[in-house]
Write a structure and sequence with these properties.
Number of helices: 19
Strand order of the largest sheet: 8-13-14-15-16-17-18-19
Oligomer: single chain
Mean pLDDT: 94
Helix content: 25-40%
Shape: globular
Distance between the termini: 44 Å
Low-confidence stretches: 1-10
Largest sheet: 8 strands, parallel
Number of strands: 22
Length: 553
């Protein structure tokens, strides 16, 4: 079944449900009443009540709900609370993020001593076991890259591989370096960097493809441990009002747990799983043999990795880094391979997403997407660029023109905004984290977190998108304030925007009759709350498929 046939079948099924459920005038299973409901529907954005039959929204409005309420209907009085389509997070690394929920919190460390102390406590708690988190950010520790010397004394017998917050660099201690076989004679792999000191010895930091040198020696988690971690992550996401995540991965680590949990009917959250572009043939075979899954777990997407990150100075730019003359980033995948693999994946009906951070990397991807579309012919392909972080102003209009989704993460703007100008200078800030410009251009914009790079909490994204206040408090008026977006634009990007970017706009992203009853209920109206206080909102309930999957204590 190709994508067009698959989507047509899904639309037909949804239409059949609507006709059958509404014509039969079946009594409601659940009624949400006395609420302030933002439906997300253009033309009918508000309602006070909503009725559910099975896993779908059946009716909207107090009168319609009352007419369908029977003795068996479960009536939930919202007491004026705010309900909306539950959030979809358009970009997560779900297993990795789930694992970090049980790892030491290093990101909030205040200095090197605090950083080492937290890591030492974790090593003493599980002696000899690999420590693989949490994340770190040198900008919060004085600005200098950490080295193995920072942590060797507190982890003498425990291998450590800690991802930087952007997931594009790892910090290893000496034990891990030895296990990975990395020393002064180890060459930099293609698309990667082993950071070295003045004598040529590895400092412990590996960038981009160099991280594979240690990944290959880290023992994988057991199936049971991986499954339990994902279940923990699901519970965490539901507590934040998230009903679905997209998982644009560059490995297969999350694939196994999701498939196993889905087979057990243990997924309380919807997933759209991507796998590495280089493995497009494997995914094409899976689609040919098994289809594309169902609305709890879908697949058929592949992700390309074009460049690195701004923090690691591996994002690819046209010009040198301002604070590192002569460096313009690292091409993690060659342009020749990108063209070949994307063309083949698209020809086989796979959904292609590509990580691109630097302005040149984004233009490379837009060019390749345009070439592939011309070669393979017109169809509903919905190419995605993940991050679309630094754009030349002239490139912004290309997203709408080419129908490319800008899958962006608002929290990155208020995190990286503390120091981005040091990397690329003032001139290149025009087009950086350009959320408003992309929306105004008519592009399809989808919001996400990049968890665990940023919290799996759409309220932090809502705050970031509306205020643009950097997390150090240095920009009270907002960093690049012309790129602020409204509350409604943000909610649309987290709901309808992600539904469209994942080929689910006919059944998610709105609270409309026939759509899935994926609903988040908050203690205040997110559209009327002071942007500076929106993070204080509390999730009261999260429904997925008409079932109450989370309720606040």
């Amino acid at each position: 079944m190709d994508r067009r046939t698959f989507l047509g079948a899904a639309a037909t099924t949804a239409l059949a449900w609507r006709v059958g459920a509404l014509a039969a005038d079946r009594g409601l299973d659940v009624a949400l009443v006395n609420g302030s409901i933002w439906t997300g529907m253009p033309g009918r954005p508000r309602a006070t009540a909503l009725g559910i039959v099975g896993d779908r929204v059946a009716v909207l409005g107090a009168d319609a709900v009352k007419a369908r309420t029977t003795a068996r209907t479960r009536v939930i009085d919202l007491g004026g609370a705010f309900a909306m389509p539950a959030f979809t997070d358009g970009h997560t690394h779900f297993l990795h993020g789930s694992v970090t929920l049980t790892q030491p919190d290093l990101l909030s460390a205040t200095d090197r001593a605090d950083f080492a102390a937290r890591l030492g406590a974790a090593a003493r708690a599980r002696p000899g076991k690999w420590i693989l988190g949490g994340t770190w950010d040198e900008q919060r520790l004085g600005g200098a890259l950490p080295t193995h010397d920072w942590i060797d004394a507190v982890t003498p017998d425990t291998p450590v591989s800690l991802p930087r917050t952007d997931l594009h660099s790892y910090l290893l201690n000496s034990v891990a370096l030895k296990l990975a076989g990395i020393d002064r004679n180890t060459p930099d792999p293609a698309g990667g960097v082993i950071v070295r000191d003045a004598q040529g010895n590895p400092t412990g930091v590996l960038k981009d493809n160099a991280t594979k040198l240690v990944d290959r020696v880290i023992p994988p988690p057991s199936d049971a441990d991986a499954d339990e971690a994902v279940l923990l992550g699901i519970r965490h996401g539901l507590s934040k009002g998230v009903a679905q995540v997209h998982n644009p991965e560059i490995d297969w680590t999350t694939w196994g747990p999701l498939r196993r949990l889905h087979a057990r009917k243990a997924l309380d959250m919807r997933f759209y799983a991507f796998v590495p572009l280089v493995d497009w043939e494997k995914m094409a075979r899976i689609v040919a043999e098994e289809g594309r899954g169902d609305d709890w777990l879908r697949w058929g997407g592949v992700k390309a990795l074009t460049d690195g990150s701004l923090g690691s100075r591996t994002a690819v730019f046209y010009d040198d880094y301002t604070d590192a003359p002569g460096q313009r980033g690292v091409r993690v995948t060659s342009l020749a391979n990108l063209r070949e693999w994307i063309g083949a994946a698209d020809a086989h009906g796979l959904h292609v997403a590509a990580h691109a951070i630097g302005d040149r990397a984004n233009d490379d991807m837009l060019d390749i997407f345009a070439d592939v579309a011309r070669t393979n012919g017109a169809k509903d392909r919905r190419f995605r660029i993940e991050h679309a972080q630094h754009l030349r102003p002239s490139s912004i209009a290309r997203f709408a023109k080419q129908g490319v989704v800008a899958s962006v993460q608002p929290f990155h703007a208020i995190d990286d905004g503390r120091w981005a100008v040091k990397r690329i200078g003032e001139k290149r800030l025009n087009g950086t984290y350009a959320f408003r410009s992309l929306i105004d251009s008519g592009a399809h914009v989808a919001f996400g977190s990049d968890w665990p790079v940023a919290p799996l909490d759409p309220l932090t994204g809502l705050y970031a998108a509306m205020t643009r206040r950097t997390i150090d408090g240095a920009n009270p008026g907002g960093w690049l304030p012309d790129q602020k977006v409204t509350a409604e634009q943000t909610l649309v990007a987290y709901t309808r925007g992600n539904a469209w970017s994942g080929f689910m706009e006919d059944r998610t992203g709105q609270l409309a009759p026939g759509y899935y009853a994926d609903i988040a209920v908050f203690d205040r109206d997110l559209l009327a709350t002071d942007p500076l206080k929106v993070q204080d909102a509390k999730v009261l309930h999260t429904f997925v498929g008409g079932k109450q999957r989370y309720t606040a204590a």
